[in-house]
Each structure stands twice: as C-alpha cells, then as structure tokens.
C-alpha cells in the first residue's frame, strides 16, 4: 500500500515514497499478552523480538496520552541486542519489522480501548537522509484497525540532513495520510534546531540530556523554557523525556511542561501497557 497524495511542487516524488516491500504478516509472541484492554492469546511469533511499552503522560488531565513502543528480545533483552545483530536486508529491514511488530503487539494488548495513541520510531535512512514512506506500516495499521491519526512517528536522525526540502515534502505526504510526526531526542546529536527548521513537527520530545537533573541546572531550565516558548508559538506539543525523580517533574511543571515520559511514571513494560497513575 503506497502513500497517497500529490507532491507539493513539481519536483520528482522522493525516492522514499516508492513503496517498500511488504513483509509477511506478523504475529506477536505466543504468550498471553498482559493488557489494560481485553487480553487474548497471541498467535505464534514469526520474528525473534517483541516490544515493551512506556506511557507518555498528561500531568494536567492525569491520563496517558500515548504509549511509546520499545523493541525488546523475546526474553525482554534490551534493544541493543536486537538492533546490533546482523539481519537480512540490513538496518532498514529491521526498522520496518520493528514498526510492524509494535503495531501488532500494541493492538493485541488493547491499545485501542485505552484511548491512547501509539508512538513508533522511524530512523531517517542514513544513505539519503530521508524518511521512508512507510506503506507497509500504514497497511499494518489498517489491518489492525488502528486509525492513522492515532499513530505517531518519532523521527530520529543519525546523520546531518543534506536535503531539507525533500525531507519536508516526504513529511507532508505522511501528514496527508493522517499520521503525526515527532522529533525524538531533541537536544541530542543532530536532533536540534536545524531539524526543527527543516520541517514543522507536531510533537517535540526533549532529550534526557536536557532534563537530567534539571532542578539543579539553571542553564537547562533556561533552554527548556525557550524551547517551550518556541513550541507554543509554532503550535507544537512538547514532551519531556527521561523523567526519573519527583524533583525533575516539579521543576519541569514549574516551567510549564505538561507532557512527560520516564521511569518516574512507569518503567517500560514488556508485552504490557502500564497503567498510570498506579491503582
């Protein structure tokens, strides 16, 4: 299923919009998946990994607004053991498989019933500094009954952008399908003001490098306050990552940060959707 829509200008359609090969249908791990919705046994696995989920919370309304999917081994091994292993088709293939796995497992757990959105990671392809058009991912969401406006693509950029105009056109095509775009790890590596200027994301996630010990670091508070004002002016939702203590939470709340994510609220739960606030 290819992305639809007409390019915004007369330039050729970006190479990233050429449909990626659709892998075989995925079935999550055969154990009974824990769920805040209606748990049900999952069919046999077809890939050697699964997912953990961590909530993103709204402190004003005291609710979970989204779950971020985090790749794990079948025994809950960390992501590095999966992503660093050799895979047929290279990194692009494993990234695509992770997206499909995240959708299938989350929907098996009942994410639709929670009312929360699902956030999945997308790595801009290093060879072209571009974002895949994700037709297989969109098709997986359709099969699972997940509305595209409840799917958030968290973009990470491992190399400097060489073609911002092409990136902007690709993001616009994805938005025309209803998906929302987030810049992940803002303030770390290449995920900075250049990436923010390259396109207008719906969501900006501040990296733990800025939020760590924020209650003790005046410079970090000044930077976050400035970024928050930029997000307000551009109508971008800001999420603070890496919240591990009540001191961090209170310092960020005092700055006006409403949405947060981190171990302080809930640890990533393997094949489960954590409840917050805890009962």
Structural overview:
- By secondary structure, the protein is α/β, with parallel strands linked by helices.
- It has a single domain, classed as EAL domain (TIM Barrel).
- 32% of the residues lie in helices and 19% in strands.
- The protein has 9 helices and 9 strands.
- It has helices at residues 79-83, 90-109, 111-114, 135-144, 164-176, 193-198, 208-211, 218-234, 246-255; strands at 49-58, 63-73, 117-123, 151-156, 180-186, 203-206, 237-240, 259-261, 269-270.
- An 8-stranded mixed β-barrel has the order 1-2-3-4-5-6-7-8.
- β5 (180-186), α6 and β6 (203-206) form a beta-alpha-beta unit.
- The chain is globular and about 50 Å long.
Summarize the structure.
With 279 residues, the chain is α/β, with parallel strands linked by helices. Helices cover 32% and strands 19% of the residues. Helix 2 runs parallel beside helix 4 (135-144).
Task: Please write the CATH class name.
Answer: Alpha Beta
Distance between the termini: 42 Å
Strand order across the largest sheet: 1-2-3-4-5-6-7-8
Percentage of residues in DSSP E strands? 15-25%
Overall pLDDT metric: 80
Summary tags:
disordered N terminus, alpha/beta, 279 residues, TIM Barrel, 32% helix
List the helices and strands and how they pair.
Elements: E1 49-58, E2 63-73, H1 79-83, H2 90-109, H3 111-114, E3 117-123, H4 135-144, E4 151-156, H5 164-176, E5 180-186, H6 193-198, E6 203-206, H7 208-211, H8 218-234, E7 237-240, H9 246-255, E8 259-261, E9 269-270
Parallel strand pairs: 2-3, 3-4, 4-5, 5-6, 6-7, 7-8
Antiparallel strand pairs: 1-2, 1-8, 1-9
């Amino acid at each position: 299923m290819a992305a639809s829509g007409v390019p915004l200008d007369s330039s050729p359609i970006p190479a990233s919009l050429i449909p990626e090969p659709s892998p075989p249908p995925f079935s999550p791990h055969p154990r009974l998946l824990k769920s805040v919705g209606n748990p049900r046994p999952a069919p046999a696995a077809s890939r050697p990994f699964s997912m953990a989920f961590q909530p993103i919370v709204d402190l004003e309304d005291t609710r979970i607004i989204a779950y971020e999917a985090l790749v794990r081994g079948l025994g809950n091994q960390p992501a590095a053991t999966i992503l660093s292993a050799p895979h047929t088709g290279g990194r692009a293939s494993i990234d695509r498989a992770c997206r499909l796995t995240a959708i299938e497992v989350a929907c098996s757990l009942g994410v639709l019933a929670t009312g929360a959105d699902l956030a999945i990671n997308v790595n801009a392809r290093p060879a072209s500094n571009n974002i895949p058009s994700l037709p297989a991912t969109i098709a997986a969401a359709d099969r699972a009954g997940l509305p595209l406006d409840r799917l958030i693509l968290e973009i990470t950029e491992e190399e400097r952008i060489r073609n911002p105009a092409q990136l902007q056109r690709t993001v616009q095509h994805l938005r025309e399908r209803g998906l929302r775009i987030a810049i992940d790890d803002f303030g770390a590596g290449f995920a900075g003001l250049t990436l923010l200027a390259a396109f207008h994301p719906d969501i900006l996630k501040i990296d733990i490098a800025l939020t760590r010990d924020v209650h003790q670091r005046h410079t970090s508070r000044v930077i976050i306050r400035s970024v928050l004002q930029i997000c307000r002016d551009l109508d971008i939702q800001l999420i603070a990552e890496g919240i591990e203590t009540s001191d961090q939470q209170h310092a960020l709340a005092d700055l006006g940060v409403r949405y947060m994510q981190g171990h302080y609220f809930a640890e990533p739960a393997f094949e489960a959707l954590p409840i917050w606030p805890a009962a």
